[in-house]
Amino acid sequence: xxxxxxxxxxxxxxxxxxxxxxxxxxxxxxxxxxxxxxxxxxxxxxxxxxxxxxxxxxxxxx
Length: 62
Hints:
Oligomer: single chain
Number of strands: 0
Distance between the termini: 74 Å
Low-confidence stretches: none
Shape: elongated
Structural class: mainly alpha
Strand content: under 5%
Helix content: 10-25%
């Protein structure tokens, strides 16, 4: 039973590595010549409109 389980685990580990291209690296430390894509720039949310004379202080409309 133990050798069968070991063989299944070995096959699973081999299958997990299939399709991997190149060496793995951490995003903070890429190999020379590789530039990871920059993350999308932060877009701040606009300020809410100021409450006018018609609206209540809570922002709920009548």
